[in-house]
Amino acid sequence: MDQIIAGFADALTITNIVLVFAGVLLGQVFGAIPGLSALTAIAIAVPLTYYLPPVGALGFLVGINKGGTVGGAVSAILMNTPGSPEAAATAFDGHPLAKQGKPLKALKIALYSSVSGDTFSDLVLILVAAPLAAFAIRMGPPEIMSVVILALTVIAGLVGLSMLKGLIAAAFGMLLSTVGLDPEAASDRFVFGIAELMDGIPIAAVGIGVLAMGEVLHQIKLHSRGTDDTHLPLASKNRADRRISLAEFRSCIRTILRSAAIGTGIGAIPGIGSSAAAFIGYEAAKRASDKPESFGKGNIEGVAAVEAANSAVVGSNFIPLLALGIPGNVAAALILGAFVVHGITPGPHLMEEQGQLIYGLFGAMIIGNICNFLIGNAGLRFFVMVTHVPANIIFPATGLLCLTGAFLAGGSFAMLLVTGFALLGYILRKLDFSFVTFIIGFVLGPMFELSFRQTVILADGELAYLLDRPIALSVLGLATVVVIKVLLTLKSRA
Amino acid sequence: MRNSNIMGRLAAKAACLISAAALTFSAPAAMADYPEEPIKIVVGFGAGGGADTLSRLVAKALERELGQPVVIENKPGGGGIVAATGLMRAEPDGYTIGMAVDSTFSLAPLFGGQVKYGVGDFDYLTTVASLQNAIVTSGDAPFATWDELMDHAKAGNKVSFASLSPATKMMMQYIANRDGVDLKIVPVKGGKEAMKEVLGGHMQIGWSAGAHQAYLKNEGVKVLASAGTQRLGLSPDVPTLLEMGYDFGVDGYFMFFAPKGIPADRLQQLTDALYKAAADPEVAKLAQQKMGFPNVVLTPQETTDEVLRMVGVYENLMAAAAGK
What's residue A76's pLDDT? Predict the structure, then answer.
């Protein structure tokens, strides 16, 4: 108990609150700018934190990570240019809302759901990290493979009537994800003698190119004849369109809790990540809704489902990190580096060895959530001004930011990649292929390949191996149900 | 790690500005001795990881030794291959050096493919830390020693092995062939991942370059063998593969290198400074106490000998694998 009080007291110093506040602000700004991301900010900030006291340093980094979850929704909603795969689904309902003149409403439900999802997973982390980590470690290759397959079935739910085109785009995404060294024999695939491609095509380049830059090109083409129109109608002055009423929030609570639980569960398993959580959360909300046809047309529940799920991953990624020393994603791996520099070795003995510091970190996380809410609420009004900027200014400027972000993340080679993928994104939009299923295929492809190959080797040709894995079997069963339901819906519509 | 050249680039840019300013103000004195510009270290791994952190600390100490800024640029990819490929083409003027691991030079060229450099294309300057290669299992495995593992495998049980790289796959395959046992060699993404699979009971044994050290307490992980030439600091009772009659040991080093052709006096000055920086107390403290890697600093000659020794080891292992 003394440790808990001492830890929280450490977190509550002025320096720490300022550092967490600065981190959240930085994360929100980096997250909101297309082409940049919280990950970029964390990578730049890690060496700066070598000179800060431990709780402040970690609070700063955690703050950036948290701010990024809120910021990421902004460009997806306002400009339909999500900078990263996990925000792609935010645009499904967020951007239609903005087009209806309700950008503030969309941004607010995104903020509230994001902070709720994040807080939910932080509480789970603080209260039950150890038992949950013990459960997460039971998730081996077959279980990870099943969860990835379940996430892939979401594609079936998204392709709508043009099933064939959606699947072609997804297969193309998976194909591109095989570029690089084969995970087992390390033989080259589609490398063409370019050493930079040995570790594969970076997700950042594909995300910025297809999702953000592709939309920029598309919009520039749309407005190429135009004068100085804005791309969105002016925001509605109607008060109900600018806020989330208590009743509206209450109607979303079930969706938020469901998505937060999905995100927390997926985040606790190292290596799956927030994109899968976002899409599974969206699909689950759609299936549970009594008006599934309103999804994709500006349903606030759609925004809430995605934001609660992908933000919950951020908190619960710390469960395997703190309890086992295993980072769940790239951001967590960078923060792990900072832990090590400050003399903290995450792992099973962390609580007994560094209890006070960990409670300090938990304190910083809670402060971070409060900052996220406050800064977000104040910042929305500024972000929404983007809608008043003429399209012939905002889109070229966004394009420039995307290229800058690409350069920061990977030098001139990444700029080439982003340009190429922007063209691809433009063509996909023009020919009405789903760029979203493309990106899901690209993100989940390598995870599917690795876990599948691991499972095959472990099973050694015996299907009976899977019979010993009840969790894997039940998730696979769930995936089958999703596919059958989608096929039935398609049949009844045809 | 895919996305993180960022800090290096920013730092490089900052350094360019600083050096530009320095040139402007000191133009008449331009004949000063080496070094008169910032030094750049190209790190073959992503920002935030062990290699990166070690390099940054060495860079700080090197700045004090040379009196010039030392900037880090991360060029991750292929376990140092991308950085080495870039360095091969760099000007050998003593202002650009690299940081990678010994297998970047001894093993990678043997695989061919994208690797366009050979072991003779570089000068090897110094090492900064040695890995702790081990073969480990979980605390509740049915075997507690290497001999028990082999008895278990010879009784017809196919043991699963979490393999970190083609090199670890090759070494375990060599052992399996030699002893006539069957293994399931499963690729995993890095040491942390291997620990997860072993602790979670999904794979029975795994390779560790040091990641296991955090789990030694309370018997979470048991070490079956040291795969290096010497016993491990934290597991002094466990024999090496060499002691048990296998004819190889791999130590693994984080090390600095430079393109061949740097003028001899500059190279001398650079390696002297680097040798001191790598042995700096702060570097030693980070490596030993925080990362769990002994701060082993070899001279240029010793470093080169070690790289060449490993070329021989890997060639033998490959020949044995091919001849099977």
Answer: 92
- Rounded to the nearest angstrom, the minimum Cα separation between B166 and chain A is 6
DSSP letter string, A399-452: HHHHHHHHHHHHHHHHHHHHHHHHHHHHHHHHTT--HHHHHHHHHHHHHHHHHH
| CATH 3.40.50.720 applies to domain B134-250 | no
Higher pLDDT, A12 or A348: A12
For A411: left if phi > 0, alpha if psi spans -120 to 50, otherwise beta; the answer is: left
CB contact under 8 A, B160 and A458: yes
- Is the minimum CB–CB distance between A457 and chain B shorter than 8 Å? yes
Return the domain boundaries, chain B.
Answer: 6-130+252-320, 134-250
A410 near B CB under 8 A? yes
Burial string for A42-66 (b: 16+ CB within 10 Å, else e) reads: bbbbbbebeebbbbbbbbbbbbbbb
Calpha distance A88→A322 (Å, rounded)? 29
Tell me if chain B has a CB within 8 Å of the CB of A345.
Answer: yes
Candidate from B85, B186, B199 with C-beta closest to A454: B186
pTM of the model: 0.83
Q: B183 to chain A nearest CA, in Å?
A: 10
Pick the CATH number of B6-130+252-320 from 3.30.390.50, 3.30.1490.100, 3.40.50.720, 3.40.190.150: 3.40.190.150
Q: Residue A292 contacts by C-beta under 8 Å, 6 or more apart in sequence?
A: A286
Best mutation target, A341, A462, A469, to test chain B (most B CBs within 10 A): A341
Q: Is A137 on the interface with B (CB under 8 A)?
A: yes
- Inter-chain contact B113–A188, Cβ cutoff 8 Å? yes
pLDDT tens-digit series, residues A346-372: 777 777 778 888 889 999 999 999 999
Q: How far is A117 from chain B (nearest CA, A)?
A: 26
Cβ(B205)–Cβ(B161) below 8 Å: yes
- Beta carbons of B50 and A340 less than 8 Å apart: yes
Please give the ipTM for the structure prediction: 0.81
Sequence-distant (≥ 6) Cβ neighbours of residue A174 within 8 angstroms:
A441, A442, A444, A445, A448
A423-449 residues labelled b (16+ CB within 10 A) or e (exposed):
ebbbebbeeebbbbbbbbbbbbbbbbb
